[in-house]
Amino acid sequence: xxxxxxETRSTGNCAKPTKKWxxxxxxxxxxxxxxxxxxxxxxxxxxxxxxxIHQRNEMIDALHGRIDQLREQNKRLDVENEHxxxxxxxxxxxx
Length: 95
Known about the structure:
The protein has about 100 residues and is an all-alpha fold. It is built from 1 helix and no strands. The longest helix has about 70 residues, at about 25-90. The chain is rod-shaped. The model has no long low-confidence stretch (mean pLDDT about 85).
């Protein structure tokens, strides 16, 4: 069985451009690198801020929980105080 040989030519994206880049394009490569570095720094900073916000929110939630506990404790102590005051009021005078 005979097979046909077909020649293929590359017309895809891998071909190198035949034009020379303008002078301004050569200067833009370092500028792009600088901008990428600045972007990375800003993204890192945003990541740290998000982490700090997360920690802050956790601390706020913990403090709200502690405030609720202390309010409940104050209510129980108020009830106990009222009970003790009533006991003193009703107790006979030792003098």
